[in-house]
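Re: that backbone. Tokens:
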């Protein structure tokens, strides 16, 4: 942070140093502001993706339950439940990371089983359709979870950028400006004092002559 005024040495060297710090702070402020704005734009793009993914997930789940209900009506609930008991769960869930403007965000790579876990002989095509729809819904659920993770990370980074921009804009840079004005006033005062001192010495020398 900028020094307290009482700790500042009012010299030209110090004035140059503080001015350089102010330029660096202003450049940093501009860069952080640009990054913050870019992150906000990216955030809202991903919000749109989330809304689309959620809508698709809701439609897929609705379709899944419709197919499942139809399969139960044809095959009977007990038979469908018995087949469901033999279903294969998701094998793995690989979580890696991606980079959005320097921010690490999660990427989920699900391994949803595709193989059949029941025979075709005594089952309805509606059950096949229901299984496919539920698999699709699972993938979409993980996609929504990935998007939510990205939004959380970006929101955190946006908040950090905002705090830094505000600290520079409302605290750090104003303190540097106040320090610069203080040094300039002190230097001007010294120059006036030197001017009157020289003038007085000159007058005294003229009187002696």
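Recovered sequence:
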């Amino acid at each position: 942070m900028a020094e307290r005024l009482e700790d500042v040495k009012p010299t030209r060297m110090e004035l140059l140093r503080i001015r350089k710090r102010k330029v660096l702070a202003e450049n940093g402020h501009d860069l952080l502001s640009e990054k913050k704005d870019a992150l906000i734009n990216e955030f809202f793009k991903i919000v749109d993706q989330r809304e689309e993914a959620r809508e698709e997930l809701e439609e897929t789940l609705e379709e899944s339950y419709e197919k499942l209900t139809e399969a139960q009506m044809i095959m009977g609930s007990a038979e469908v439940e018995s087949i469901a008991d033999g279903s294969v769960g998701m094998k793995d869930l690989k979580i890696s990371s991606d980079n959005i403007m320097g921010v690490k965000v999660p990427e989920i790579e699900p391994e949803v089983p595709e193989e059949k876990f029941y025979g075709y002989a005594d089952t309805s095509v509606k059950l096949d359709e229901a299984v496919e729809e539920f698999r699709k819904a699972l993938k979409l659920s993980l996609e929504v979870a990935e998007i939510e993770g990205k939004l959380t990370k970006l929101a955190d980074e946006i908040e950090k950028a905002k705090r830094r921009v505000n600290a520079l804009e409302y605290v750090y840079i104003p303190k540097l400006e106040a320090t610069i004005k203080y040094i300039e006033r002190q230097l001007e005062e010294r120059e006036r004092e030197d001017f009157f001192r020289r003038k007085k010495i000159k007058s005294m020398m003229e009187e002696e002559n």
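The longest strand covers residues 92-100. The CA atoms of residues 33 and 202 lie 56 Å apart.
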